[in-house]
Amino acid sequence: MMAAAVVWVRAGPRRAPALWQMRWLSLLLAATVAAEQQVPLVLWSSDRDLWAPAADTHEGHITSDMQLSTYLDPALELGPRNVLLFLQDKLSLEDFTAYGGVFGNKQDSAFSNLENALTLAPSSLVLPAVDRYAVSTLSTYLQEKLGASPLHVDLATLRELKLNASLPALLLIRLPYTASSGLMAPREVLTGNDEVIGQVLSTLASEDVPYTAALTAVRPSRVARDAAMVSGGLGRQLLEKTTPAAVPHPPVSYNDTAPRILLWAQNFSVAYQEQWEDLTSLTFGVQELNLTGSFWNNSAAILALTYEQLFGTTVTFKFILANSFYSVSARHWFTMERLEIHSNGSVTYFNASQVTGPSIYSFHCQYVVSGTKNDNLLVPHSQPSAWQVVLRDFQIQAFNVTGERFSYASDCAGFFSPGIWMGLLTSLFLLFIFTYGLHMILSLKTMDRFDDHKGPAISLTQIV
User: Fold this and answer.
1) What is the gyration radius of the CA atoms in the chain, in angstroms?
2) From CA 248, how far away is CA 38, in angstroms rounded?
């Protein structure tokens, strides 16, 4: 049995084509999954047609251990019996973005050999987000499928190995990742890892050994951060310490034969006679939420949320929406006609007709507040109202719902904000001053006749 060894290599930067030019990296850059529990997995092989193009995952998909086995089984049964597992300590999608030579910096790519291998490989598959549990059991899974124990090798050991295409072999090559916060240290390590990959593949190519290779990591190197603007503005946000992004709760979904109505808010709070209650935790992500009274068809929808023992009684909130066709725009538009609050046998109405948009879209607004001001979307029918409602980061869709995901949102914020109007008017005023001044300068005329001291004096009676 050959001695086990772990490869730890550092190398300087290497000039190579940018990784983002490759077909498969569009998946890596597009996927925006949370990076705390998932790692990327890159597969390629010297054999053809091991993975169908349809197997490429869509944006945001997280590959489970069962799904991963469906991808690996055909490659292990029909493909080469020599399997290489490049296992890095840490790796995330953000590493490809930060060090892959994006934005035209081709010379800065830290993945040139990996890029070349995937470009030349007859079969390749990229899984942008694989569950860490599936990766943690990957070595054991490959060992069981191949019937061969994993062999930890370095470059020197690999050159001495005599691989046979008919005999299974599982070669494990560990790659490091630095925890340093500096910019160059991770780049150098990733470049060194890429050099190791290139040398291993060159050794196999020189021996004409068929193989299947996989690159993944034990854990992610980065944690996704919330990039949303804070209320203090971008400059304030850059000065403040970033905090981990909170996992959003799922929307409320009313289903009959399929999802029909979706409702979501970052915060849902109500007040009765100045006594406030936060209903967020009682509404979103709750399996036993009472939706009795909800209704849906192609022209009307009602989403009813009932809460027991709210302010000492049973309270029901009804979001009532209508869908109508308008010949002027030649399309259907939905309108949230009103919000009803049923409690103690009485009903409080809020006009919500400003919540509207094309029926193929959802509606989104940062703040939906009840009140009598012009910018409030919930206007009480009677004044004063004992009830107050606040919905922060509100989104609703009651028509053309596909699955449990919102369609493109029609936002309540107008395009021309007061700041934009002020800028436009100021620019037009300055343009008018510039045009007037330029016109005055072009209107200046100089004399075209001059006095000659040797001749008779001339007389200028008028200058036109």
Assistant:
1) 33
2) 17
| pLDDT reported for residue 458 | 63
Query: Which residue in this structure is represented by tokens 């949320």?
Result: 305
The two tokens of residue 249 are 């709760």
Amino acid 13: pLDDT: 40
Give the bridge partners for 267, in sequence order.
392
Residues 6+ apart with CB under 8 A from 341: 270, 315, 316, 317, 318, 347, 348, 350, 387, 389
**The pLDDT value given to residue 452:** 67
Residues in CB range of 359: below 8 A, 6 or more apart: 323, 331, 332, 333, 334, 399, 400
Please list, in sequence order, all residues whose beta carbon lies within 8 angstroms of the beta carbon of residue 179, skipping any fewer than 6 positions away.
90
Q: Which residues of the chain have pLDDT under 70?
A: 1-36, 52-60, 101-108, 155, 176-185, 222-247, 372-375, 414-416, 449-452, 455-464
CA pair distance 111, 409, nearest whole angstrom:
37
Tokens of 22: 């490759």
Report yes or no on whether pTM surpasses 0.90.
Answer: no
Which of 154-172 are b and which e, b meaning 16 or more Cβ less than 10 Å from the residue's Cβ?
Answer: bbebbeebebeeeebbbbb
The DSSP element (H or E) to which 114 belongs, if any, is helix 112-120
Q: How long a stretch of residues is the chain?
A: 464
Beta pairing partners, 323:
334
User: What's the CA gap between 79 and 99, in Å, rounded?
Assistant: 32
Share of residues in the chain with pLDDT > 70 (%): 75
H helix and E strand count, the chain? 11, 20
